[in-house]
Amino acid sequence: MRTYLVTGxxxxxxxxxxxxxxxxxxxxxxIINVDKLTYAGNLDNLKNVSQKDNYLFIKADICDASAxxxxxxxxxxxxxxxFAAESHVDRSIxxxxxxxxxxxxxxxxxxxxxxxxxxxxxGAFKEGKKFLHVSTDEVYGSLPEGEGCxxxxxxxxxxxxxxxxxxxxxxxxxxxxxxxxFPANITNCSNNYGPYQFPEKFIPLIISNALAGKSIPLYGDxxxxxxxxxxxxxxxxxxxxxxxxxxxxxxxxxGHNERKNIDMIHIILETIRELLPERDMRRDNISxxxxxxxxxxxxHDRRYAIASGKIKKELGWEPKITFEEGIRLTVRWYLENEGxxxxxxxxxxxxxTR
Length: 354
Known about the structure:
By secondary structure, the protein is an alpha/beta fold. The protein is built from 11 helices and 12 strands.
């Protein structure tokens, strides 16, 4: 039975990955979920797997070297999928130090623990071991409107403390692959969306505020462009890179769904109105009048777009969920799980979703 160490597995993408892996491999794998349970970590995301005999949750901080080493001492880890990160750009602007600590130092501690556990006396590494570092397209900076895409060879040009911390962690992983021939891959993905996403993020914030009749903040002119990727397509790609990807390679994972932020709000509001029951009184209050233009974010990147040609050519991956289908699935999930949404909002404080 192969043992996976998943960091940040109680978060949005991590919990979707764990559910996907159990759905695909069942009892043939053992998953250890290590999560500090910060504001974005939520064990309710994993209620349907928490009682499995081949699942173990450990509450720990990846910046705690002794706790991380204890995990490697007590378990024979075969694969590491490293999601754990501070990830909200606005929070990184307010508190850059927390992002450097978790995203850079935490990654270094995890790399060292894996290297010590996996490396043989001759400097080679045990057969079948692999580390996958999950990163973001934001490390590449910003693209001109309508021109070009990010490739695996694109130079890094981070513009926020969050992006800089992820770029730094990427470089650490690259240095270990180069210096020690450490068995690893890096993936850089576009904006994810789907079930269980924390409601400070763009799409669940729109849904949450619209249902509550609150204003929906929109930075600047609203014409910033993002490439949207449904989360199950992302975690499927991660599994494929772990199983089939060439060691030491970086793979970009994109949704091929570029949309302006203002257009995203219109699409989501229309979808909410369509999916709400006719008797639901909130339908009448969900309108474009909720949009509130606010001062642009500092260092706000204008456009992201991922070229996924490499992972398609080498591994045969491409998105299965269309943008239209993904948006409907996402909105429907939040409408059917308003209890989850309200619990998360209460835990974070209502003021964080204004």
